[in-house]
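Intended use. Records like the one below are meant for learning the mapping from a protein sequence to its folded structure. Do not use them to infer anything beyond what is encoded.
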Amino acid sequence: MRDRVIANADRALLDMAHHDGGIGFPGELHGSNYRSNSFRPVHSPDIFDTAIMTNQPVVLVVPPIAGGRLTDPELETWLSRGDDSLAPRDDNLLTRVLSELGLAHAAEGLAALRYLGDTGNAANGFVCCADPVHFQTRMRDLVVHSLSEDQVTEAEVAALMETLQALLGGEQGVTFIAAGRHGYLLSDAPFETARIDTRSASGTVADRFMPSGSPAREYHRLQSEIQMVLHDHAVNSERDKLSLPRISSLWFWGGGALPAEQPQALPPLSGKLGLLKGFWLHAGARVCEQSGNSAGMLSPATDSGVFDFTTLTNDELVAELRTARQLLSRRRIRRLSVVSQDGVCVRLRHRHRWRFWKTGSPVLGVNEADE
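Structure written out for the chain above:
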């Protein structure tokens, strides 16, 4: 048995060998590449790491699928036959993906990891995510609403950050940076930030997850100044004309410095999701860059890895899930975990195909009446 494991592991390593004899794939990034002023060898998995990774599920990270959002009835039925669960609101996507792989996750420095994934640069010191949000004013409180990628543009985020940097940056020891549709704040002095990410906070009373007490003074001071700047900003004037929700403020979360490196046996990551990509790069693991919108990543040879499908259209997502179903049916994939951005996780194995009695899932919003 041991000889068979070693032989399989050796074969897996040979499959990963690049044309120049190194471990890697064309177009991939390694954790050592994001630091131009230092060299750190890439962590190449040994045969024991490879043996461990073959027992990990293939993980598909997908857009929200709860509430019947997936439009293919056959795939809904297939997913409903797996073991599903809904994560607590304060569990971030990285934590849930690493939990499926059975690996330790970062408790601090989430913003620094996402910053690394979004920009390819390691922040020096404190950084927090500063994502555009809309505050809905009610009689006694404010409700925070995240803005999806189709509700805010990169140009809008860049314009807001440029204005905030001009008015509030520099002398106050803070720097506002735009990275795509994400915003970041770098500060000379660390301060408390919200306990959960923007998407998880969406739809809740803003004060519920904001810091409080004396450690939160800097947080609330910045919030007040930012809200005054954004109130009359040209970006919001244009959004009013288009009947789009105003960008009321920035949601500060994940504050901290880059955490200590934790070499782990991570499977390859395919995709561009900043938080996942940053964690993989920081751990010295393989990140396979995808051109375009990352459609068509799964192939008949797929048997391991984490795949980011969050930027796919519904039709493209359906096609990838159908491929995953075929790979699982043919036992090319031994275990499959589908992790969605809205907290749903579905774990599937080959034997689940025989669960004909299980045709509904309250988590997915699929019931027998819908079949």
